[in-house]
Write a structure and sequence with these properties.
By secondary structure, the protein is an alpha/beta fold. Its EC number is 3.4.11.1, 3.4.11.10.
Length: 499
Amino acid sequence: MKFAFAKPALPKSGTVAVTVANERTLGAAGQDLDQKTGGALTRAMKASRFTGKKEETLAILAPAGVELDRILLVGVGKAEEVGDTALQSAGGALVAALDKSGESEVSVLLDLPAGAGLAPADAAAELAFGGRLRSYKFDKYRTTEKKDAKPSLKKVTVLTADADGAKRAYGRLEGLADSVAFTRDLVSEPANVLHPESLAERCKDLAEVGVEVEVLDLKKLKKLGMGALIGVAQGSAYEPRVVVMRWNGAPDAEDRRPVAFIGKGVTFDTGGISIKPAAGMEDMKWDMGGAAVVIGTMRALAARKAKVNAVGIVGLVENMPSGTAQRPGDVVTSMSGQTIEVINTDAEGRLVLADVLWYAQESFKPRLMVDLATLTGAVIIALGHEHAGLFATDDALADGLLAAGTAVGEPLWRLPMGDAYDKDINSDIADMKNVGSGRGAGSIIGAQFLKRFVNDVPWAHIDIAGVAWSKKDSATVPKGGTGFGVRLLDRFVADHHEN
């Protein structure tokens, strides 16, 4: 879908969308259109439940007096709340309302209510950004879809007094939108297409935007001593991979240490010998969601030439049951030298991250580390599908991530850690075991396990198990892979770590 910007001028035909603030408040352009249509907009709103709340839409067949085909009213909410996320939601709602309407183009009269917190150019760009995020489709494998079921909307033109400024502002957001889409593609791919070896190859595409990519194969992983990660992969026909992605956007910085992002990349998780129930196992193709977010974040930073040194490292494995698979009760030696008793082979993501976290510290001496993983079902019990779980050893790091998540609409909720939880993973025969003694505090136990592989580097763990995939549409996220975390980390870097 194409997004463009132009000076305000009512089109002579086609479809027009008009933004409306709370309590059915029309702006100058909306009032002008209402007058030209003999009050049709006002009458339609009074005859409906549409009040201009955020994400509300109301379609009107264009009345006599204008040559338009259709008018779409789009709510943006209260004036004081009209910021970037509200306008993104409006753009998403607009696209969702017209995507299969039969209309191919729409012009948007963007009326900012008095008190709105954005300049006209930025407002137009944010609305287009939201529309772009909502227009995402993963339909590459559909071959028999009927024409009337396919999206019809091809172009959205946002009308604003500062069209040139809007184009520049949207240009900065377009690379981020592309990176979110890239992430969603990875999460959506079936596991017979996307396995550790093929995902490592996909990472090489980031070289096109200037990211340095290195792939560590099984031979290198054995030499490094990544016994925890290798143990997870040994039941699969596909060899494991670790991919290192580097963006050196601040080569002359006084502190050249990178920020490090680490991702769990289990391309399919059967649970291994501790096999999962059959129902819903197809969802485990997106157990590499953390890795996908790290890959997408590195792409986004490079696409906008972020002035930061960053490294993204993903551990890629497939967790399968077979004659060579890891068994419950096995003991593996991690890269750190610490030994792990594997009580449950379905608690495999933390084994992968243990080695990758250690490798990140040893190889890059980062200023901070943030790992992302679809680590535990327990975080869904705690937080549902509304927030990702956040754990951290550093309050400033946690606060920065929380603020970034709130700003972009990808909220986090910080959960506790402590010695009492840590003691629950002590093993009788090894340095630790990979699960606790009961069902309680599963997400916290997972975080405590990871903490044992973090030294003095400020570290945060984000459990995205509840937010990596959505079974319903929202304003800017169609159901399926969400890409949750890419916008969050991009904003976190922009706010705190760019020179």
